[in-house]
Amino acid sequence: MKAVRYYGIHDVRFEEIAKPEPAEGEVLIRVAYGGICGSDLHIYNRQMFIQNIPETMGHEFSGTVEAIGKGVTGEIKPGDKVTAVPMVTCGRCIGCRSGYPNTCDSLGFIGEVRPGGFAEYISMPAEDIIKIPSDGNLKDMVLAEPLAVALNICELAGLSHTDKKDRLAVIGAGPIGLLTLILARQYYGVRRVDVTGRSQFRLDLAKKLGACLASGSLPDGSFYETVVEAAGKKKTMEMAAKYAAPNGDIIIVSVFEDPFEFDFNSIVVRQLRLIGCSAYEKRHMEKAVEIIADGSVDLSGIITSTFRPEDCGEAFARASAKEKHDAKIVFDMQQL
Ligand SMILES: [Zn+2]
Ligand SMILES: [Zn+2]
Q: pLDDT per residue over 120-132, tens digit each?
């Protein structure tokens, strides 16, 4: 079969590798779409996270069940549309044992610690499979994984349908920031959501998706009950502390590439809460599939480019470009 594999910084190759067999307890999936995530760019540009070289990349994917391994029980059958929880966890550490596998000491993802989804086929443990309704759109469903992150952010921020928040700011207009905006506005009915980021393309998109203000900076003197930090820089972390209202929450979802000094008095004096967000739990992904399928949120506009996997070099270069002209870039694996 064909796969997109990582060989080193700025070196991804489309090549022939052996087709996997479903091991005991696993399900073999014919991949339909794969999405390039911010973490794939950390791998592509900085060689972060990745454990084996070469490795098949990708943890955001959707597809159909091709075959079932021995010992798989339950309702999964060939032809079912599916996606899967891509986290690889130890099952033994305190995080895993306390019911938060997303905080596992050795948390890894497929495409980093084992073969990922940018391939014709992938074999996944049956317990990680999430069924998609038969009329579900497989291209939209590739967004279930990043939408699960945004659902976790909103949950950690205490957003709810009944007790609506007034003001939320999103710092960083990448896919996670934009999906958080969509959920906050369309799903949780937050009255005002402002977005700041560097890319004019993404800010224009944020405006179309319901941002009240989308600009290179937040208005001076404004305050937000909740600030979502989704950019991962010293400057954006300082901005989060500056614009959080007294007694407000800062939800940090970024992976920071570089350490930096930070003035924690800015947190103390306004009594802010700093809340980290690590990926999501399986239930968030199930919920993401559900709300994409039932049309509770309109995600059109998030997938901005579709590439053939043989053009993976071009796709990664475009996704990494300083001047962004995309939100989410996906691979169409179907014609392989
Ligand atoms: Zn992702
Ligand atoms: Zn663990």
A: 999 999 999 999 9
- Whether pLDDT at 176 is above 90: yes
87 CA distance to ligand 2 middle (Å): 11
Token readout for 245 is: 């209202």
Start-end ranges of CATH 3.90.180.10 in the chain?
2-143+302-332
CATH classification of 2-143+302-332, choosing from 3.90.180.10, 2.40.240.20, 3.40.50.10840, 3.10.350.10? 3.90.180.10
CATH superfamily, region 150-276:
NAD(P)-binding Rossmann-like Domain (3.40.50.720)
What is the mean pLDDT of the segment spanning 107-126? Answer: 97
* Ligand 1 (single-atom ion) residues, CB below 5 Å: 37, 60, 145
What's the mean pLDDT in 202-216? 97
3-class DSSP state of 155: helix
At 335 the pLDDT is 83
Q: Are strands 2-8 and 55-56 parallel, antiparallel or unpaired?
A: antiparallel
Mean pLDDT of 225-241: 97
Separation of 206 CA from ligand 2 center, angstroms? 36
DSSP 90-138: -S-SHHHHTT-GGG-TT-EEBTTTB--SSBSEEEEEGGGEEE--TT--H
